[in-house]
Design brief:
The complex is a heterotrimer of chains A (219), B (272) and C (219). Chain B is α/β, with parallel strands linked by helices. In chain B, 36% of the residues lie in helices and 23% in strands. In chain B, helix 4 runs parallel beside helix 6. The chains are: A mainly alpha (219), B alpha/beta (272), C mainly alpha (219).
Chain lengths: 219, 272, 219
Amino acid sequence: MNFDFAFAATTLPTILGVIGTTISVALLSCAGASILGFSFEIARRAGSLPAYLMRFTIDFIRSTPVLAWLYFLYFVLPHWGFTLPALVVGILGLSIYFSGYLAEVFKAGIDAIPKGQAEAAKALGLNRIDVVSFVLAPQMLRNVAAPVGNHFVSILKATPYLAAIAVPEMLGSALDIASNTYRYAEPLTVVGIVFLVLALTIAQGVRLLERKLHGPTNR
Amino acid sequence: MNSDGQPMRQTAPWPVEISQHHSAHPPDRTVAVEAAALNKWFGSFHALKDINLAVPQGSRIVICGPSGSGKSTLIRCANGLETFQGGTIRIGGAELTGDEKQLQKIRRTVGMVFQQFNLFPHLTVMANCTLALRRVLGKSRSEAVGIAVHYLERVRIPEQAHKYPAQLSGGQQQRVAIARALCMNPRIMLFDEPTSSLDPEMVKEVLDVMIDLAADGMTMLCVTHEMGFAREAADQVVFMDQGRIVETASPATFFAAPSQERTRLFLNKMLR
Amino acid sequence: MTTVEIFVGIFEGFRVTATVTALGLLYAVPFALVFGVAQYLTKGMARLAITAVIEFWRSSAVIILLFVFYYVLPVIDIQLPAITVAAMVLGLNAGGYGSQAVRAGLQSLDRGQFEAAAALGLPRRHILALIELPQALTRMAPTFINQLIQLIKGTALVSLVTLTDMTFRAKEIAESEYNPVGVYTSLLLAYFVICYPVTVFGRWVEQRIGGRKGLTNEF
């Protein structure tokens, strides 16, 4: 058996046909993980008991594989009466799994704001809400933008796990071609290259964003 | 405010103009800040011990002392950035209760300049100056910009208004910080070691602005090691050590004939 | 089966999980050190080539790498046991991340350290081995521990190429009896039991290295 480049080329359109699914899943999961992670981090700051609970939750999530989470949600949720489409289960699973990491991103993003910023804002007479929304939140968002971007790349690279719960994304479609044609090498190589190009491109974009955010005009 | 929306600082003598600008202030407050029997602990560390200090409206008081003497803690208590465990602080006659709403109200009348400038790095110089004018005092954009331009001119950097803090030198940043505080038209300005993190060649430009302010009659409470400033601008110099006020004197007496041994030792080190 | 029996049943897969992790480390650590140092020391074309190798292993989706190597190697007549392929792919992926910690750790050292050592007449390799690497090692430690956790969790993937690890055992048990809650909770717990001590250790190391800063509590 040989590697058939012509056949590999014919698989490309089919695989790229679902690139939209892959990217949307990654975007939605990144949003979900950010919201969850940010909530964890805010809750963690609310007192010593919440801090302990949230710390444990985050550590639990970070100590368990994404595949185990996907299986758990995929098989347990219906048992509990929540029958969701596989796509939704997949997004939920990635959101939970990556929230453990996003929580750390938000922690670092908040901790990197000097204490004097809130003090200066308060000294001007701003109320709590204005201190957060005009002084702290914009700085936090700037601090987390690049790390969130990097985690988006990680999430994107984790989307093929969703093939394990039958979500029709790029790896899934490659495996479909493989089982129909009994040729595994070509579609898998193609999907590998597509993911590599996608990941490298977005990572480069994040690097540019980082340079822009921390360039001469800002800090 | 006069008809074109500009504050009338330069033409009207202070504090007459203050009452026009901020008619909400009752005019009878003669003591800007007053601490009585003030005590503060950080855990088991007794940071401030029975501090009694009055800053009359219109006076300039310089606090000096070795590091760890509690001088920064004291000035931070004066606008509620630090809590305290014993005694009272009155600002313009009103006692600090720790109530958030009251604090916000009081802080509008108390300007503060920090050692680390604490400009907001994500906002331009102009936006730094107008943020509180708009959000706290509810001024319109054009009104706020007018006030900000006025005070940026006063600290002699109107041309930097569109820049971000990181594009400015330390001295320029600190002058912006002073302008930002002045925009709120405070009844008193607190300075917490305003020149301590500046390169030596930039200290003068900040001190010049502060001396100007003093000459205009601004009430000032300054923690600083700049003895030249104390000599030139202060009515009173307060020396603190180990959480206590050791000595309070006029600059002339303080530098020529301090009454306490600890003051003499400190001055020896500072002025060598 | 009781939940305890399920849990024990899942742990029958521990041997494979542990073996893949251990073999993976044999790939990850040397790769990280050699390629991280090489990227630090080289310039121009050599550095570009080294960076390309690192980026291939680091930026590819590990699940796809596994499938590609599992199915493509036989096509070019390289027959390797699944466990070797899995350990290599997971190990080199972790090693790719590790190499960046090595390089960043070396780059973050004060230039004065190198200059002082060079001024003493130490040859380059001694400067690296005696001055730079020992100092950089403490800075790399958190990333290395993090990558160890990623490696352990990543081994769940081998269940997809028919190796009987903990995740594979969970799926086997799930097929023989309907108890999704018991099975998949046990699966999460099984990984948690293994990874949590490493997570806690990693946090401890990070705190010892990083120290603590004052938090902004306005959020």
